[in-house]
Amino acid sequence: MHCLRWSIVLVVFATLFSCVAVSAGEVCTVDDFERPVQNALAGYRNPFQAAPSSCTARRLPEAARGTDGRGLRLVANREVRGFCGYWLHLFDFKTREPRFFDATRFSYMSFWVRGERGGERFAVKLADRNWAMKEDSISVGDVDVLLPGGVTTNWQRVTVPLGADPRLKWSELAGVTFDFNMPGQYVVHLDDVYFHQSADDPAPANPDAATQSSRTPSPPRAMWIWNTEPLLVDAAQRNQLWEFCDQHRIDTLWIQLLYESRPESRQSGTVGHDDENPATPRRLRYEVQWQSVLREAHRRGIKVHGLDGLPEWALREFHSIPLSIVDCVITFNQ
């Protein structure tokens, strides 16, 4: 049976990511670009540019190092004027007290790169807390120097030695920057950014054969839908929802419930929370459509929760309202 999970929400908040670095031995994965928004250190990432130079970034399956998962595709047009590149944070800048990355226990940072044509050039830069406050970073080497033979059309690992530059506080690293600092048009693919202790510590050499335990686990991906009626009455809207969930790997939906008074309880049913009699029994609206939504969601492995709530429901005199809605959901599930 496809059941609707019920949650009474008095204070609603969503946490899409709450994750820490995944460490195996002396290897710490920072970003494998599987997560759409934040990496394993909860850091955000984004291209940067100043006209007329430009840079775009996309996470794509064809940019991955193996046939499974996603990698990062950067398309840069570096003019003589302006600048462009891509930054990757090692901390969550939205928290009140950011936790910067302590790299003192690691000797190297590595990532994998592949060029569209070969010969692509960019500088690898690092920033600590102070440099990040200035929105700047320190170059630790050009990729064609760090990588013997330069970038080619094959995947290669770039290894950056750490700890040598006294301008950086290595216990408070804040970000990695890929700076296209030479004029030209570039298309590069990046994957598997990580810190490690030994020069021989690689990311999984064969991503296709890597076990699930050796990869960074995907965090839950949830979405709140508050405008429910168009979704229930319009099949095209539902198809767009499923496509969006597939694209963004959404595995949990919190959907605002629609309900009304039972006809036998009142002459005219009302929708919402303004019922004159809080104890009035309720029933879900669009029960048949709900069944269709649940059937398709569960076929796709997506959990569905019914969502509703008001702050005043925490008061004893209003407890009968959420309890009656819970009864309604139980009846629907039966």
How would you describe this structure to a colleague?
The chain has six helices and 18 strands. The chain has helices at residues 129-133, 143-146, 228-233, 235-248, 287-299, 320-333, and strands at 5-8, 22-24, 27-31, 45-50, 54-60, 71-78, 83-89, 108-115, 123-128, 138-142, 156-161, 173-179, 184-196, 222-225, 252-256, 259-261, 282-284, 303-308. The strands form four sheets. Strands 2, 3, 5, 6, 8, 11 and 13 form a seven-stranded antiparallel beta sheet that branches. Strands 4-7-12-9-10 form a five-stranded antiparallel beta sheet. Strand 2 (22-24) and strand 3 (27-31) form a beta hairpin. Residues 6-25, 204-217 and 264-276 have low confidence and may be disordered.
Report the sheet-strand fraction: 25-35%
CATH homolog superfamily of the largest domain: Galactose-binding lectin
How many helices in DSSP terms? 6
Name given to the CATH architecture of the largest domain: Sandwich
Total DSSP E strands:
18
Briefly note the CATH topology name of the largest domain.
Answer: Jelly Rolls
Shape by Cα distribution: elongated
Provide the structure class.
Answer: alpha+beta
In short:
The chain is of the alpha+beta class.
Which key terms come to mind for this protein?
334 residues, alpha+beta, Jelly Rolls, 2 domains, 7-stranded antiparallel β-sheet, 5-stranded antiparallel β-sheet
What is the topology?
Layout: E1 5-8, E2 22-24, E3 27-31, E4 45-50, E5 54-60, E6 71-78, E7 83-89, E8 108-115, E9 123-128, H1 129-133, E10 138-142, H2 143-146, E11 156-161, E12 173-179, E13 184-196, E14 222-225, H3 228-233, H4 235-248, E15 252-256, E16 259-261, E17 282-284, H5 287-299, E18 303-308, H6 320-333
Parallel strand pairs: 1-18, 14-15, 15-18
Antiparallel strand pairs: 2-3, 3-13, 4-7, 5-6, 6-13, 7-12, 8-11, 8-13, 9-10, 9-12, 16-17
